TrEMBL record:
Keyword list, A-Z: Flavoprotein, FMN, Monooxygenase, Oxidoreductase
Domain Luciferase-like: 29-353
Gene3D superfamilies: Luciferase-like domain (3.20.20.30)
Stored PANTHER family: ALKANESULFONATE MONOOXYGENASE (PTHR42847), ALKANESULFONATE MONOOXYGENASE-RELATED (PTHR42847:SF4)
Enzyme Commission (EC) number: 1.-.-.-
GO molecular function: oxidoreductase activity
Pfam families recorded: Bac_luciferase (PF00296)
Protein name as catalogued: LLM class flavin-dependent oxidoreductase
Length: 396
């Protein structure tokens, strides 16, 4: 029996945590540094660390500040990481475990775990059960960022050969369709394949709001079509690289294409982008901060990490410019608080629905953002106080 009844999106449930987030004019997330070195292979002193306690404190602070979500990446680095003096990203927490564990020390914020669903022995029944359990533990706040694995060397750790780009998305499509069936059906599911067979499979408890939040990152046609079929949020990059003016010129057409693809699927897919925010009280101070980060760059790690990207087949990073590459992130916002807000307003005007920000020195930079930038976001209408959200319609 191969029922195709899909689990409804939590976005359609007015009381769900995701629906509440989508009422904000502009989604605000924090991209956690659960990997050593965060996003920046630099030796400039900082507090940022991969440890769970540090990331838990960041998450609790972000929640107190009204952030909508936190997010962790997943990677499989070999001994020495990406090399250099810093052994960049040699150490990292598992995103699935670490982000899920944050449910125990938070109450409101969405928690998004990244998982390579095609690596190793993962089966849809495993993840459907784990996901339903986490959905109940978090009261509907947990979600999965579905990734297929673009890196050349990562599958080798699992005794696998790299799967061709579009074939990976075909497999992921089947995997997620099975998840949605298992989360929705009130009877056993039996399928012969393709890829994952199951006989009399059944998962309880059922998720509280239809299914957990589904996310993916996409830059290719196959990735965008996957997002349109399955995801609530899609993380995108700037097609023209990491500098703001280039991004502002290229994003409108890119986002229009994503929305058109989603519309064909009857989807209200929302787009998010990951800016590295380097903010100080004045533009001159912010530029000086950026320059100090770059001056202390771990050059070997920068080059090795760039080569890692070049050897993969991700479409999202193909046009990242060399300029300021040591800074990290897929978009660089550098300036005073007023300039940061102006940049976010311009990003919204391109069609971007929100950001998951990163910082160089996370704890103090987050506090500066909270004190100097966040009030301006409310003044600019990008954010609405929590107690007014219930009367505010969801953003288009």
């Amino acid at each position: 029996m191969t029922d195709t009844i899909p689990a409804r999106s939590p976005a359609t449930e007015p009381d769900s945590p995701l629906a509440r987030v989508l009422r904000q004019p502009f989604i605000l997330g924090l991209f956690l540094p659960i990997q050593d070195g965060g996003w920046t292979p630099s030796t400039l002193p900082r507090t940022t660390t991969w440890t769970f306690d540090y990331n838990a404190r960041l998450t609790q602070r972000a929640e107190a500040l009204g952030f909508d979500l936190v997010f962790g990446l997943a990677q499989w680095a070999s001994h020495g990481g990406y090399g250099g003096k810093t052994r960049y990203r040699e150490i990292s927490l598992d995103s699935f475990m670490a982000t899920a564990a944050l449910a125990a020390c938070t109450e409101r914020i969405l928690l998004i775990s990244t998982l390579h669903i095609l690596y190793g022995p993962w089966h849809p029944v495993h993840l459907a059960k784990f996901g339903a359990t986490l959905d109940h533990i978090s009261k509907g706040r947990w979600g999965i960022n579905v990734v297929t694995g673009y890196a050349e060397r990562e599958p080798l750790m699992f005794g696998m050969k790299k799967i061709e780009h579009d074939t990976r998305y075909e497999m992921a499509d089947v995997f997620v369709e099975r998840l949605k069936q298992l989360w929705s059906l009130d009877r056993n599911l039996t399928v012969d394949g393709p890829h994952w067979a199951m006989e009399d499979a059944f998962v309880t408890p059922k998720p509280a709001y239809g299914r957990p939040v589904l996310v993916n990152a996409a830059g290719s046609r196959a990735g965008i079509e996957f997002a349109a079929r399955h995801s609530d949020l899609v993380f995108i990059t700037s097609p023209a690289g990491n500098q703001l003016e280039d991004a502002l010129a290229s994003l409108p057409d890119h986002i229009a294409n994503i929305r058109a693809t989603a519309a064909k699927q009857g989807s209200s897919l929302r787009t998010m982008i990951n800016p590295m925010v380097i903010c100080r009280d004045t533009e001159q101070e912010a530029i000086a901060y950026r320059d100090a980060i770059e001056a202390a760059a771990d050059v070997e790690a920068v080059e090795n990490f760039a080569e890692h990207g070049r050897r993969g087949d991700s479409h999202a990073w193909r046009n990242q410019r060399r300029q300021h590459r040591a800074i990290g992130g897929n978009l660089h916002l550098v300036g005073s608080p007023e300039q940061i807000v102006d940049a976010l307003l311009k990003l919204k005007a391109t069609g971007i629905d929100g950001v998951q920000v990163t910082f160089y020195d996370f704890a103090p930079d987050l506090e500066h953002f909270a004190e100097k930038v966040l009030p301006l976001l409310y003044e600019a209408g990008l954010r609405i106080p929590e107690d007014r959200l219930t009367a505010t319609p969801a953003a288009a």
